[in-house]
Amino acid sequence: MAFHFTLKDDGTRLETVSNQDQTIAFVDLGYSDDGFSYKIMITLCSVPAMPPGHREVHFVIIEVDDNFSIRKHTNGLSTKIFLVGSNRNDVLEAIALVTARLAKLTECEVLSINTNETYLPEKALKKFDYICAVLCLDGFDGRRVDSFHGQEQWQLKKN
Question: Structural domains in the chain?
Answer without folding.
Answer: 3-158 (3.40.630)
